[in-house]
Amino acid sequence: MALASPDAAAAVRVVGGWASPFVMRVCVALRLKGVPYEFLQEELGTKSRLLLASNPVHKKMPVLLHGSRPVCESLVILQYVDEAFAGATGSSPILPADPYDRAAHRFSADYADAKLPTPLRILRGMIGGDKAKAAEQVAVALARLEEVFVVECDGKGRRYFGGDDIEFLDIVLGSYVGWFRAAELVTGRPVLDEATAPRLAAWAARFCAHEAVRDVMPDAARLVEFGEALRAALAAHAARP
Ligand SMILES: N[C@@H](CCC(=O)N[C@@H](CS)C(=O)NCC(=O)O)C(=O)O
Question: Can you list the GO cellular component terms from the UniProt entry (predicted)?
Fold first, then answer.
């Protein structure tokens, strides 16, 4: 039996945690669309029944609940938000209008998600691993994305990957900026700055100041504290008989 389709006005809730870049994407997208939402914060180191029931396949956050219907996986949610709230007041597009630009944004977003999270977790000390290798992996990925910015934005007078405003790739890559800063605090070494990737460094500052972003961009020092607390909570959980 098909579920009743909620209209765009049905309540919107985000199940997640403030420290997650994947969750932050969803909040930025909803803010960009001018869609009010309730944020349901998950407890550190545990998964709520609502999260497990809403995302039984991956058991990960974020989950977007539109009415009672769950949407999972941040990139899928971004597209859903773009389509479901296309007509919302003050609505800005999330995916570019041009199919080729859309494909290019998706390609680089997939690249960022494939290359960045694990080495950033290693640099932040949240999981074990070779820190020098992780730093090199992040540097290679950022150099590649810097090249994309130079070709797609500098060459065309764009402030963001999306042009005059943030769009899909800005939201996806921008969600890692807090983690870059946290990795810098933990390692004492630059991850994204003027010297490593000058165009992206300037873009990151613009992204963080954007009105849809500034209230949900996590503070780096808080992220470091959160990483330590999460690691301790998971270790305590693993040590239980
Ligand atoms: N590909 C997923 C990744 C989501 C993800 O890794 N979420 C993390 C929080 S940052 C999570 O829920 N981790 C719990 C787990 O791995 O069990 C997405 O884009 O939504």
Answer: cytoplasm
CA 62 – CA 73 distance, rounded (Å): 7
For residue 6, pLDDT over 70 is answered with: no
Point out the ligand 1 atom lying closest to the alpha carbon of residue 20: 10
Out of 23, 61, 173, 226, give the residue to mutate to test ligand 1, the one with the largest number of ligand atoms within 8 Å of its CB.
61
* Distance from Cα 150 to the centre of ligand 1, integer Å: 30
Q: State pLDDT tens for residues 20-43.
A: 999 999 999 999 999 999 999 999
Positions of CATH 3.40.30.10 in the chain: 12-84
22 CA distance to ligand 1 middle (Å): 7
For 61-90, how does the pLDDT look when each residue is reduced to its tens digit (9 = 90+)? 999 999 999 999 999 999 999 999 997 666
C-alpha 61 – ligand 1 centre gap (Å): 5
Torsion of CA 51, 52, 53, 56, to 10 degrees: 120
What's 48's DSSP letter?
Answer: -
| pLDDT score recorded for residue 235 | 85
Q: Which fold has domain 99-221?
A: Glutathione S-transferase Yfyf (Class Pi); Chain A, domain 2 (1.20.1050)
CATH of 12-84, one of 3.90.226.10, 2.40.50.140, 3.40.50.300, 3.40.30.10: 3.40.30.10
Residue 5: the pLDDT is: 54
**Contact criterion met (CB below 8 Å) for 109 and 172:** yes
